[in-house]
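RETRY 2/3 - previous attempt timed out on the joint model. Re-submitting the same 189-residue input unchanged.
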Amino acid sequence: MYVLTTDNGAISLKRGDITHETADAIVNAANSGLLGGGGVDGAIHRAGGPSILEECKLIREDQGKCPSGSAVVTGAGSLKAKFVIHAVGPIWSGGNRNEGPTLAAAYSKCLNLATEYSLASICFPSISTGAYRFPIEEAAKIALETCVSFMRGKATTLQDVRFVLFSDDDLAVYASRLEELSSTIKSPA
Ligand code: ADP
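RETRY 2/3 succeeded.
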């Protein structure tokens, strides 16, 4: 278990299947169409049941596609969570298309939505590093920096920010990035 403690709460890393987690919210790495897909998106819809897609369809009808860097909230069907936050990360296309800031914006949006909904715990997958091909070393740095700076600087109900990585290799990348951040961050006095 890898943990970084902040004034508000802990940011932790574990290996696992995010659909098995118990938390107030589970984040989905969705696509902007919001109507399901492969990877973690497919797994969440399969495990949570059809109500999640029904809610996504209503959001889609109401507000159209969800742009990358943003996110929307649905219930969590039969998952052990209250909500699914469907976040749309950027598709990697070489690094000169604002992919980094867009990825950071997707994480920030989830953290802000969780705070708006007064949630205490949230689980993230590694957004954009699967089918969207964002290099994981850089993505992990952006993901963790965004969460650490949010948990250190913002008034939030969140106390438990959990990254659930799907492979040992992904976990190792996130762990080394978290360790780098820990050494540059002073604990609260
Ligand atoms: P994206 O399109 O944003 O790249 P993917 O779902 O293709 O999203 O991949 C994002 C990450 O989620 C990848 O690292 C993938 O291995 C991981 N992943 C896939 N299924 C699960 C799952 N059930 N739990 C946690 N992570 C998962």
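The CA atoms of residues 38 and 120 lie 28 Å apart. Closing ticket.
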